[in-house]
Amino acid sequence: MKKWFIYSAAPLLSVSLLAACGGSDGDDGGSSESVEGETTSETIGSGDIELVFWEFGNTGYDKLIEEYVEENPDITINLQNSDMNDMHDNLFTSISADTGAPDIAMIEEAQIERYRTAEDSFNNLYDLGAGDVQDEFLDWVWNNSESASGDFVFGLPTDIGPTVMFYRTDVFEEAGFDSSPEAVSELIPTWDAYEEVAVQIYEETGKLMTDAGELIYNARRDQASQQYFNTDEELIIDDHPEIREAYDYTADFFDQDLAGDIPLWTPEWFAGMADGSYATMLAPAWMQGVIKDNSPEEGIWSITTMPEGAGNWGGSFLTIPSESEHAEEAYAFISWLTAPEQQLKSFLDYGLFPSAPAVYEMDEFINYEDAYFGGIPTAQVFSEAAQQVIPVYKGRNYYSIDDVIKEAIDNVSAGDDRDEEWSASLDTIDRILAR
User: Fold this and answer.
1) What PROSITE patterns does UniProt report for this protein, alphabetically (predicted)?
2) How far apart are alpha carbons 429 and 402 in whole angstroms?
């Protein structure tokens, strides 16, 4: 995706949270409502030890911080919120200069790749006791914060963005299908079935299966057992078939006029959620808020599993730069903030989807339903998806390469030859990595 996404807030709040995201110019994930270039600061508590905490987005952590400092009166937390890109740029500048870094820094899950070569600038949380809480998190989320060798962990996971299939019940019914989540899941268990249903929907209704080929590619890419790099940072895109298969599968949809070429996050793209011009959207948990804001009619959109598994899009980690003079106190706080009990509160209050599977067994989570999506237990659908994600090493150059492939997909959607675009992409990738 290109520029912006909206992180879903809890349905009872019906709030959309603006954020920079997705692969373009290094922008990815993390909820945000902050004004670009502007930093807000709030000092909470009156203890002798002050922890400076850099965050982006509207996380609701200020409320949890109030709870923490009340229980730990020796701690003060200076919470500084800024635009996601600005925060990551400022953090990179600070650790490069070895001055000015905070005690705690939130790093978006895709941006973590940017810091892979800067381990010395962060505390290894294994040295602070992170091994004791490792089992509290989904394995694949934890792995995303580890070094390639597995002996260094950058941060503790906060929220995640498991992907599912949002779909229009009215379009499925118009095409003659049962539109219940169970029926749609059984109808489309595989990607072959997804394409077959896309053809039937187009023939019966004249409507597209999805709005943009990019979301199809993302879904197939994120289910691959390997993507662009191995753990030695060697390019493997041309050595195994899964990425090329994802690319060709997307191109097939363009060839059959089954997918739109509407750029994501444009007014036309948002409008399509309301006008029923396409049947499905392959997207993460936070997309709930986007759909609600742009298609306000209840009961039209529903949610079910994606074909052949799930992926993840979004989330963040809480890190402790090595410059901190209070690393132990900072670790005590972030281990509390990311514990299952606090993750449940963040989910119920702000819609941040938990990375701690223990939350998925809690009654308030299990019984959570959303009238907007037909009263289905949305939390359970997303938790099932979260547990299907395949851990994949991305590498520090991941998003530069992903942008090149996305550009090729855009060109194919405009009518260019898929093979020529693929070949040109590989040439561009070689030039990028040779710099």
Assistant:
1) PROKAR_LIPOPROTEIN (PS51257)
2) 9
